[in-house]
């Protein structure tokens, strides 16, 4: 009908093992693969704007891997605990890649990305998310380390000596 349709495959025990839908279960189309208990454990879908998404679920129905497109930006992959907390995020942007590691409370505590001068940067934060260590390449292609107190203040910057070569 006008709302789309569903095509399902069932096993001999009457448990749905796979489903293809168009407009009925999602805004776009989807393909789901179920485990022997009928729980969808893998899904590929498109949304109304035509962007895609891939989801991986454990045997109990907890979403643990979520890969999706970010319109106008790139793609992202999120790894989650069985409680639904996002603990790892990988993203692609026009400026380069980004990796975030979150603590048990969902606060980003390790961030690796490209810097504004196209080099790399790694930031370590405390449990509150305050940046306390930053390692980066500077505009002259040298390394720099920034160390701060627990509130992100009193930053001390360490750079290599100019003209020194052992």
Overall shape: elongated
Overall radius of gyration: 22 Å
pLDDT < 50 runs, ≥5 residues: none
The tally of domains stands at 2
CATH class of the largest domain: Alpha Beta
Count of DSSP H/I helices = 0
Secondary-structure arrangement, i.e. CATH architecture of the largest domain:
Alpha-Beta Complex
Structural class: mainly beta
> Can you tell me the CATH topology of the largest domain?
Outer Surface Protein A, domain 3
**How many beta-strand segments?**
14
**Taking all residues together, what is the mean pLDDT?**
88
Largest sheet: 14 strands, antiparallel
Helix share, percent? under 10%
Termini separation (Å)? Answer: 76 Å
Question: Keywords for this structure?
Answer:
166 residues; mainly beta; Outer Surface Protein A, domain 3; 2 domains; 0% helix
Which SSEs are present, and which pair or pack?
Elements: E1 5-10, E2 16-22, E3 29-34, E4 40-46, E5 52-57, E6 63-70, E7 74-80, E8 86-93, E9 96-102, E10 108-114, E11 120-125, E12 131-137, E13 143-147, E14 156-158
Antiparallel strand pairs: 1-2, 2-3, 3-4, 4-5, 5-6, 6-7, 7-8, 8-9, 9-10, 10-11, 11-12, 12-13, 13-14
In short:
This protein has strands spanning 5-10, 16-22, 29-34, 40-46, 52-57, 63-70, 74-80, 86-93, 96-102, 108-114, 120-125, 131-137, 143-147, 156-158. It is an all-beta fold and 166 residues long.
């Amino acid at each position: 009908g006008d709302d789309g349709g569903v095509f399902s495959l069932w096993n001999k025990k009457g448990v749905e093992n796979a489903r293809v839908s168009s407009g009925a279960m999602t805004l776009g189309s989807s393909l789901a693969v179920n485990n022997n208990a009928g729980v969808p454990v893998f899904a590929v879908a498109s949304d109304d704007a035509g962007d895609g998404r891939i989801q991986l679920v454990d045997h109990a129905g907890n979403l643990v891997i979520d890969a999706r497109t970010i319109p106008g930006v790139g793609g992202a992959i999120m790894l989650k605990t069985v409680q639904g907390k996002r603990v790892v995020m990988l993203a692609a942007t026009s400026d380069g890649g980004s990796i975030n590691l979150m603590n048990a409370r969902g606060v980003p505590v390790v961030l690796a990305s490209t810097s504004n001068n196209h080099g790399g940067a790694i930031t370590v934060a405390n449990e509150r998310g305050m940046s306390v260590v930053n390692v980066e390449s500077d505009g002259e292609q040298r390394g720099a380390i920034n160390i701060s107190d627990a509130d992100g203040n009193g930053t001390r910057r360490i750079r290599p000596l100019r003209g020194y070569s052992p």
